[in-house]
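Students often ask what a 'structure token' actually looks like in practice. Rather than answer in the abstract, let us consider Cadherin-12, a protein of 718 residues. Its sequence is given first.
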Amino acid sequence: KLHSDLDKGVGTVKYTLSGDGAGTVFTIDETTGDIHAIRSLDREEKPFYTLRAQAVDVDTKKPLEPESEFIIKVQDINDNEPKFLDGPYVASVPEMSPVGAYVLQVKATDADDPTYGNSARVVYSILQGQPYFSIDPKTGVIRTALPNMDREVKEQYQVLIQAKDMGGQLGGLAGTTTVNITLTDVNDNPPRFPKSIFHLKVPESSHVGSAIGRIRAVDPDFGKNAEIEYNIVPGDGGNLFDITTDENTQEGVIKLKKPLDFETKKAYTFKVEASNLHLDHRFHSVGPFKDTATVKINVLDMDEPPVFSKPMYTMEVYEDTPVGTIIGAVTAQDLDAGSSSVRYFIDWKNDVDSYFTIDATEGTIATNELLDRESTAQYNFSIIASKVSNPLLTSKVNVIINVLDVNEFPPEISVPYETSVCENAKPGQVIQTVSAADKDLSPAGQRFSFRLSAEASNKPNFTVHDYRNNTAGIETRRNGYSRRQQEIYFLPVVIEDSSYPVQSSTNTMTIRVCRCDSDGTILSCNVEAIFLPVGLSTGALIAILLCIVILLVIVVLYVALRRQKKKDTLMTSKEDIRDNVIHYDDEGGGEEDTQAFDIGALRNPKVIEDNKIRRDIKPDTLCFPRQRPPVEDNTDIRDFISQRLQENDVDPTAPPYDSLATYAYEGNGSVAESLSSIDSLTTEADQDYDYLSDWGPRFKILADMFGEEESYNPDKVT
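Now compare that with the structural description of the same chain:
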């Protein structure tokens, strides 16, 4: 309620209200000043309102007092229940945990005013999940309530939590949430075999490394706590087998380490131990985390292929052994209970295998062709043995036959077959050391002997000295040799080996007589060199060759210069056909001298060019010279000069007007005759130069000069 001291209760004062919620949430009686709420208030929506009130005169509308401000505060009531904003919850705790192990903390929020009464005081309790878990009523912490909860018994738990305000008193509002709790696994269970004895049946034909059976121990734990390691306990049969763990199924896979043979042993017994890889020390008191089982393996008899007595056969035979000679045998047996006969044959792969044959029943190997060690020293092929009762069951073995050498080739002298001896050689001088080679496979300690043939022993030129180490020296027996008498000697040398039967050969060596210096260095072995005088040294020969080369270079340069000079003169003389200017230092013979140039060049029709319009000057109208009577002599030259003169007068492409066009020949019959005063038949006064004006602009200056002189002559009568 609002009231002004100026309000006398006669209705002269009017009250107004403004601010938060004025007119929408709150209203005022203009006459009495009573303030009323026109709708429900929610503290959680807006806890207080700030309003302004004023008293005004009803008639003048003027305020009677200053505007005053006041606050309306909303008082809280318990109208909101607690809420779990993060629920539902998911938590986990290891199995076998002790009582009071921490699991999770939950929290509920109440929107009521915590400073007014108990409307926001929350208390927690468990509605579902006892007796396994407990909760702190004030903090909301959930803990285990029972010891040794086993995951293998029960893994999932759902706990219902309640939060109630008003301190949990009667009449308080409550909210609930669920907590899903999972027991995580620990290694609290050892692996156990479901049975104590495992029986396996394995064919004797099983391959080494193949899996022959599986056994499994059961571990109720999960994940890495259920990983099992299998081991074979040392004992009977354990060395023939191995066991590994299949990571996907945790089974023990038994594999074969060695081949089985039913005829040798029909059954094997051994023990297998299963244990956990990851142990938990908290549970050692429970007992050993491993288990043992017995495995019995029965070997099944299978129809197997024959077995050779050796993994490989090696035989030897001499080359050139007669065809059909037996050189060895292979043996294979059927080791099955019902023994079967065996048949042998060669595994044909190429033509080399055709050199031998095998007896299908006995397995004896014989030669089928003559063998040559020098062609093939070793043969390698395969023998296949099959059972008569089941030909599809076969086995194979490699056979190596080494061909032994027979002494069939005589030894021969090794290169070189040719040597030389100096003319100034002394008796007993070794000129060459020779050795021998044998195509046969020489056995250890093979010896070769060297000697002269019988016919060469009677000639005292050379001899052979056997060093008894498979080499021999060729020695001289004369004091000096002459090329003029004999240039080449042929020395037959006999070589024998020590094998059986003894083989020998006669080898002829060529000995060439050469000219040598005093140190024994060979200078020349050619027969032509005998007739050449001894004289020039190498340096002198090089000097002579250099002189010859220099002379040839000088001659070539001289010829090239002459050709170049002649070419330059020809180009100068033919550079311009029309304006042929001859340069010389002596005085010429005048206008009548026509021997200084080739008149034929003026008659060359190739020098005539087509008329071309010049673009740099504007041609003027030209006047043609007046015609004069022709002169009898030199008509061809006069016509040529006249034609060229006319062409130059009308040619706009001709040189500029102040240039001089020189013609090499004037001729006796010139229309203008000679301009020189020398040998003139008439005097200057008798000359009439009016025709010069008719010759065109080129002779204008000359016409003006002679015209002025004529007009100035005082003797002339006008």
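One point worth highlighting: The helical segments are 454-457, 538-573, 635-650, 700-712. Ask yourself how you might have guessed this from the sequence alone, and why that guess would often be unreliable.
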